[in-house]
Amino acid sequence: MATPLQIGLMVFPRVTQLDLTGPLQVFSSVPGADVHLIWKSMEPVPSDSVLAMTPTVTFADCPQLDVICVPGGYGTDDLLADDEVLDFLRKQATGARYVTSVCTGSLVLGAAGLLKGYRATTHWSAVEALPLFGATPSRERVCVDRNRITGGGVTAGIDFALTLVATLVDRPTAEAVQLRLEYNPAPPFDAGSPDTAPPEVLAAMSEKIAPFRARRMEAVRHAAGRMP
C-alpha cells in the first residue's frame, strides 16, 4: 500500500479563510491524501470572517509533511516575528517535497528564510515586500520555482492547489478535482487585478488598505532584519 501524501495547511488568527479553504477543498479531494490543519494548539482559531478554524494537529505532533502550505491574511503580520512558527516552517521545509503559500503567506516563508534565491508571488498589495526577503517577485497567478510554489491573492489558492495536484499525482486527477468542484470561473467584472480594475476602484481600494500596507511593510522590514 502506498504511503499517503501528507499535506499540511497552517491556520492562525486572522487567516483569510478562502486562502485556506480553497486549497483545502482541492487537497481533500485527492485520493489517499492525509490533510492536516496545523497550529500551536488544538483550540479553534478565528479567521478574518465569522468562520473559525479548528486545527487537527499541533506543531509538536505534526508528521513530516510532503507539502507545507502557509495561507495569507492580515494575521501573517504577527507571524513574521513569531519564532515558534518560523522554526516549525524551517524544520518542515528540510524534509518537505514542496514548500508553498497562498497570498501573503509567502511573506511568512520569506521571514523564515525559505524564499532566498527563489521567484515568488503574493497578493498584489504585498509584492514590494518580497525582495526584502531575498526573493524575486513575480506577478504570475501561480509561481513555480523548483520546489517552491506560491499562489497570488486569495482566489489564486485554488489555481495553486490544482497545479500542485497535477505535479504530485497527475493532470487527469487534477482535472477530475476541478470538474468535481465545477471550478469554471466566469467573473461578472474584470476588476480582479490592479492591471484591469477601473482606476477609480483601484484608487479607492489602495486608499482603504494604505494603513494596513504601511503596518505590514514595517513588520516586513523588522522580520528581514532578523532573517538567519
UniProtKB/TrEMBL annotation:
Domain (DJ-1/PfpI) ranges: 9-166
One Pfam family cited in the UniProt record for this chain: DJ-1_PfpI
CDD domains linked: GATase1_PfpI_2
Highest taxon of source: Bacteria
Protein name: DJ-1/PfpI family protein
Origin species: Azospirillum endophyticum
